[in-house]
Design a protein that fits this description.
122 residues; alpha/beta; five-stranded parallel β-sheet; 5 helices; 5 strands; 20% strand
Length: 122
Amino acid sequence: MALRVLLVDDEEDIVEVIQDRLEAYGFTVTTAGTGVEALKKLSVEKFDGIFLDVKMPEMGGIEALEEIRKTDKQIPVIIITASSTRDAAIEAIAKGANEYVLKPFAWEELKAKIEKVYNIAL
């Protein structure tokens, strides 16, 4: 059975590319463009993990992560963020994210983080 993940990013081009790669890895991907939209989807659907951008309109990834952790401390969260927000990625780890990847990233780096967080081989 494919793992169901939520990919949250407001940049449609990036979402397309990451979604294609995750689906190639065997994930079933649902997308959201903001933290608010992500929280709504999480309230009605079950996911095995979340890929979360930091800088988004309405509600950023750090705030969304804090809300997610109030109700689910176990769901794996990988932060995917621009290199200019390295401090935000580190803050996200402190607030409960499992891993982070800085954009632009090499696919092998993302693959290694996924394998580590989900304890799977891709």
